[in-house]
Design goal:
It holds the Pfam family ABC2_membrane. InterPro entries: ABC2_TM (IPR013525), ABC2_TM_bact-type (IPR047817), ABC_2_transport (IPR000412). Its main location: membrane. It is found in: Cell inner membrane; Cell membrane. The two termini are 28 Å apart. Helix 4 runs parallel beside helix 7 and helix 7 packs parallel to helix 11. The protein is mainly alpha-helical. The chain contains twelve helices and no strands. The protein has one domain.
Length: 257
Amino acid sequence: MDGLKELYNYREMLSNLVKKDLRTRYKGSVLGFLWTFVNPLLQLIIYTIAFSTIMRVNVDKFYMYLFIALIPWLFFATSLQTSASCIISNKDLIKKIYFPRLVIPISVVNSAFMNMVFSMVIVFLALIFSGIGIDKNVIFLPIIMILEYLFVLGLSFIFAAINVYFRDLEHILGIITMGWFYITPIVYTIDMIPEKYLGLFYLNPMTRIVTAYRDVLYYKQIPDFASLAIILVWSIVFIILGYILFGKLQKNFVEEL
């Protein structure tokens, strides 16, 4: 509880770090912050062309089916890869002043989460113009986004702490996320997975997360509450593990940096 109170006391620093990241991400570019919207829009156009005219998949409006899953995946992958190097990239700040080190990975995840929220504007517009539309079940979307946020935050604590001592992790994560992408039903449907392997695929939390997004946005139905409960359990487990591990490893951050 003392640690949580300390984080709350440094909430202004956390807010400033997030704002700084959002301001500097596209600093010097012509479009600036508009790239937050342009990037997902360009991706949607590419997928529309590719899956409507070249690679035809037996799913109605497959480009939207793919796009809905890709946005939360990008939040997940970006957060993990950026958080792995966040402590090292802020070593000068860590050496100069005292503050709860957890603020740094939290700011990384918060910044990526804000980008996902902005990208959802493009998703909503695409759903409307594609003819799929939006219905009342979209009210479950914030719950799914929060559950994914908690899951990603727990993993980010773990990778941010370990990478200080094992610098190769930052590079290994690129391979891990690439493999993780292909064992998550993003570019294919659940129905394409052989039944004997289905249980293994559902051990992957991102499978349930991606499915929940599609249930609400693509199929316009209520998400499976059992899956949401499992995602919540995974999130709590990784938050607790990440918090404990980070707390133990941060004691020697200055010496390692």
